[in-house]
Amino acid sequence: GAVVSQHPSWVICKSGTSVKIECRSLDFQATTMFWYRQFPKQSLMLMATSNEGSKATYEQGVEKDKFLINHASLTLSTLTVTSAHPEDSSFYICSAPKAGVRSSYNEQFFGPGTRLTVL
Amino acid sequence: AQKVTQAQTEISVVEKEDVTLDCVYETRDTTYYLFWYKQPPSGELVFLIRRNSFDEQNEISGRYSWNFQKSTSSFNFTITASQVVDSAVYFCALSEAGFQKLVFGTGTRLLVSP
Question: Are A45 and B102 in contact (CB < 8 Å)?
Answer without folding.
Answer: no
